[in-house]
Amino acid sequence: MRSAAFRDAILNASLDAIVIIGQDSLVLEWSPAAEVTFGYARDEAIGRELSTLIIPEELREAHHRGMAHYLATGEGPVLDRRIEVQAINKAGDRLPIELAISPTEIDGRIQFTAFLRDISERVAAERALREGGQRLRATHENAFAAIGEVDQAGRFLRTNAHFSTITGYTAQELSGLTIWDITEPDDLEADRAMFARQMAGELATYSVEKRYLHKSGSTVWVEVAASTVTDEFDRPLYGVRVVRDVSERRTWLEHQRLLINELNHRVKNTLATVQSIAAQTLRAATDTTSARYDLEERLAGLSRAHDVLTRESWERAGLVEIVSQALQPYRPAQADRILTQGPQVWLGPRCALALAMAFQELATNAVKYGALSVDQGVLELRWHVAGDVGARVLNLHWTEDRGPTANELRGEGFGMRLLKQSLARELGGRVELDFRPTGLVCQISAPLD
Questions:
Q1: Long-range contacts of the stretch 71-74 (C-beta < 8 A, 24+)
Q2: In 312-431, where does DSSP find H-type helix?
């Protein structure tokens, strides 16, 4: 009686399902936990063949063979061990089960006590953990960003392939380095201070832009997003560094800064040129009508030169285009009396603007007083490049013929002052004016390299 009471107490209190079967595989006992696990009430299960209750169909034959083998030999490969098997419940759903079976001989007959634990939650958690790990590895290895894990001293623990792409070091080489070993010395201080705070638990995340030292010796601008993995007490275990190469963006920003500075410089120069043109034109003017005409013509010439430079992004201008734009206003009526000849020569912005203004003044002077002021006058502009690469010199020859005698006294206005004083200085070269009886001759030489 006491033995039966003790057995009943165990059956009722056990958190695991307990099933007792005879050697004919019929159910002798079915615990409350078994009722919950498999959905059969005790009265439904008692006397039923176990395989038809909870063993999947494809495993029933193996169950019967195992029983027969044990009864014949006393040996069973699954007895007194913990194994994981599949079972089915009353609803027909499959359950992962942890199973332990112990045989007992009572009154000359064998009984088998099975302890069964539903491990669905554990299996689901393991599957989720496994899938999560696979996703993490896939993300880690295939991310477009470099990902590195570092210990509290900054030593690399793990890195993905993209980290090697950015730094030039293999994963094995990086494992022997710290984040400080590959950081530009000038960028160490700020990152070190924040990393120390992060590893002390004072800073959850931070980001910084700095330079990495590539294995090749070059530098790489990177953006680093730093975070930590903590223990159950929220203490940092290791750091995670997600790194993105921002060299191209930094180069673009630097280029933009230079362009803004260059634009500011050029605008100031242009405004100074306009101011000088206006002041000199008004100073030499005899009446407002002529002053307005001269000023408009000079500003138009400056504008045309700017157009040429703009088409080349203000990096250079072709001499052929500069000459064409400067003489274009006078060609329609006198095209057969204006001859230009020379190769294409690429000029820097400063040289291009200086020559454009010089041609404008020479052409204006020729229309007012020189070869283009009379019907028979002709104008020639020829140029060539002399010297070897690295020491090339541009030589230009402006020749007026069959026009009025050149009068040096007329060269006291803004245009002649520009030619005599400003042009040589802007070009870093030489300007010679020859006032001949047949017309003005101007020779200009400027170094190109």
A1: 71/23, 71/110
A2: 319-327, 331-334, 349-368, 414-417, 423-427
CB 20 within 8 A of CB 28: yes
Write the DSSP string, 56-112: -HHHHHHHHHHHHHHHHHS--TTBTS-EEEEEE-TTS-EEEEEEEEEEEEETTEEEE
Closest of 352, 357, 361 to residue 319, by C-alpha: 352
Side-chain half-sphere CA neighbours of 300 within 13 A: 14
**Residue 242 CA to its chain's centroid (Å):** 13
3-state helix, strand, coil in the chain (%, to 5): 50, 30, 25
Q: Tell me the sheet residues that pair with 226.
A: 206, 241
Please identify which residue in the block is written with the tokens 């206003």: 329
pTM over 0.85: no
Tokens 């005899």: give the residue: 286
Q: Are 150 and 183 in contact (CB under 8 A)?
A: no
CA 300/CA 328 separation, integer angstroms: 11
Q: Is 154 left (phi over 0), alpha (psi -120 to 50) or beta?
A: left
What is the full per-residue pLDDT of the chain (449 aa) written as tens digits?
A: 456 666 667 777 677 889 999 888 899 999 999 999 999 999 999 999 998 899 998 988 888 888 888 888 878 777 778 888 999 999 999 999 898 888 888 877 888 888 989 988 888 888 877 776 666 565 566 666 888 999 999 999 989 888 999 999 999 999 999 999 999 999 999 899 999 999 998 988 999 999 999 999 999 999 999 999 888 888 888 899 999 999 888 888 877 777 666 656 556 555 555 565 565 556 656 777 766 766 666 666 666 666 666 665 667 788 998 888 888 777 656 668 889 999 999 988 888 888 888 888 888 788 878 888 888 899 999 999 998 877 899 999 999 999 888 765 454 555 566 677 777 888 888 989 888 888 899 999 999 87
CA atoms of 382 and 397, how far apart (whole Å): 5
Q: H helices within 245-348, ranges in order? A: 247-284, 288-311, 319-327, 331-334
Whether residue 150 contacts residue 238, with contact meaning beta carbons closer than 8 Å, is answered with yes
Per DSSP, 181 falls in state T
Q: Which of 389, 400, 423 is nearest to 334 (CA)?
A: 400
Adjacent-strand bridge partners of 394: 385, 446
